[in-house]
Amino acid sequence: MISNNKICISNNWQYFNENESNKVTINIPHNNVNVPYSYFDEKIYQIISYYEKNINIENDKKRIFLKFDGVMTAFTLYVNGKKLSEQRGGYIPHSIEITDYVKVGENKIFVEVDSTERNDIPPFGYVVDYLTFCGIYRDVWKYELDNTFIKNLFFKYEILEHNGTYGKVKCMPIIQVDCLNDENIDIIYNILNNKVDTNINVKKGVNRYNLNEIIIENVELWSIENPKMNLCNVTLISDTSKDNASINVGFRDLKILDNGIFINNEKIKLMGLNRHQSFPYVGYAMPKRVQEEDAIILKEELGLNTVRCSHYPQSTYFLDKCDNIGLLVLEEIPGWQHISKDESWRNQVLDDVKAMIERDYNHPSIITWGVRINESGDDEELYTKTNNLAKELDDTRLTSGVRCYEGSQLLEGIYTMNDFVHNGGEAILRNRKTCTNLDYPVPYMVTEFCGHIYPTKKFDCEEKLVEHALRHARVQSCCKLDDEILGAIGWCAFDYNTHFDFGSGDRICYHGVMDMFRMPKFASYVYKSQKDIKKEVVLEPLTYWSRGEKQMGIVFPIYVFTNCNSIELKLNNISKGIFKREKQNLDEKLSGLNNPPIVINTINGEWGASWTDAEFIGYDENNNIVGSKKFCASVTYEDIKVDMYSNELYCDRLDATRISVKAIDKEGNILPFISDSIDIEVDGDIEVIGLNRLNFIGGSIAFWVKSKVLNNKSTATIKIKSFYGYEKELKINLI
Length: 735
Ligand code: GAL
What we know:
By secondary structure, this protein is mainly beta. Helices cover 12% and strands 39% of the residues. Helix 1 packs parallel to helix 2, helix 3 runs parallel beside helix 4 and helix 6 packs parallel to helix 7 (522-528). The longest helix is centred in the middle third of the chain and has 20 residues, at 462-481. The radius of gyration is 27 Å and the shape is globular.
């Protein structure tokens, strides 16, 4: 459903569940049960919940639809007491026509949400290494439409020629129309100031029609560096109906070949991470701004060019942001290793493929459709169907399907492989032929590595955090040097809650390069330091700079992940030399990286030797100082540093933003082993998501605040006070 004739009805629902019959007023996105950060029984949210709301209908001539963007796992809608058929699948939108059940005036909507892990719906049926948090966790919309309306628009195009930045584009949009009776309609679409009019005889039902083609010269192309998006307006006019819709389109020439991925002829080596869409306390239920922030963290903070939406279609707000900032996406259907024999389960897989492609066709950031259950075995019957369906719905993108064993049957366009072979030893990545078992070249990429092979907590010891970083660096380096691998996507971006069968026993998989609060571990600096120095100077020595943290009092070698040209080390203000990217300062296994770390190895001193301040100074290629990082010999707790992603929140809907807090010394360095807590007090129309008292975890913590949805434009205050007495105050404008 893409019509503009819609309103968001996410605010003010009444909620209760099988364990708690008292109704409470809630706003959507909503998680049915708040969960602790760790050590909770995942059964607590696998319950039946109920949501109700009155909606107003003004015009009895309209067709009325409700669209639920995401409800975990299945739900049944009742309209004025009438039961409609069950909707299954927790990661795809569901649009339901309710015209026959509503009247002008007030109408009661009642939604029964089944959040149990049902064996007839993927990803369930066996074990799953992630939690499928529940509730109506994405927005809900009401559409009031005429008899004939625009259901969808697939903006198909072909780039006929281009010079890398501008191109000649042949637009060949396909419209999907829903109509009650056969009729003649006019469709006008407007793209880049071109108005294209098509007259079609549409047939009763939901059908697709090709619109008139048009060739446009000199179109600015979409790319990672210049993610140019264009608005396309579409209007439908007939004797009975009028409708309009707007979609965003980005034009790019994408080629995925066995020797590279090319966007507008520029070869791109994918460097990315996997993302789960979960957050502490509220699971999946985070609004637009928070979804967008994740994309920004991945692209702007970590400098990645790719994200894999593991293991299901993710929020369209996240995908829109990926389009807008130029972050490539691998999207895939829900599932985890298991394929059921149950027919309704298998049909759901096909429904998921269809819903994913129909929802997300127009995102230029999406480069392939994942049409296999992550790491499942071969199933020729099922995967022939998923592949054929994907090709029928979208013949412009290749399919892929993530496997984890060699010689899996290739029915897709890309062989995507989880290669966990690197366990710290000599083997880093297997080669393409070994994994595909094919005598001929095919597009091949690595979609996971590291993860459970080396779980690493933000509060682990320095040596562990460094080795975690080096493993990410070795795999990315090895991938860079192998032209037969199109890219590598590590497991994973953020730590995540999981079932008891996985993780560290506390329901957390510590596999992220950032923790669950999106706070960095050393491994995140591997990625960050690959950024172009013109965008940001990155200078991250992987050290806690102390005499006794590593074994035997050893301090060096220190890996400095940086995009500087060279690094000078000063101890007690005395230079120990300038370290360039020369053989003696490099780790051979990391030489493939754009910016391999500079390894500083100098006299270690020993247990009992005097301990000094240190400064790492970064120089650019012209030997200008561009950055510096100082460490104190005598570290003391000096302050807390607070950062807020956005100082504005909408007050007419549920909106939220993240605030991070670090315990720091006088040089601004994090105190990884601090034992302190913070109390958070808010004043005004906002609330803290989760707990108001938090402990630092590995020297930092973050929390989210959300607006109360009172429609009161005002200012709210957040006071953060640590037990040791450090205080900060922030203001948020509710707009
Ligand atoms: C993979 C799986 C991921 C995650 C990862 C942990 O096998 O696809 O979902 O469990 O292992 O390393």
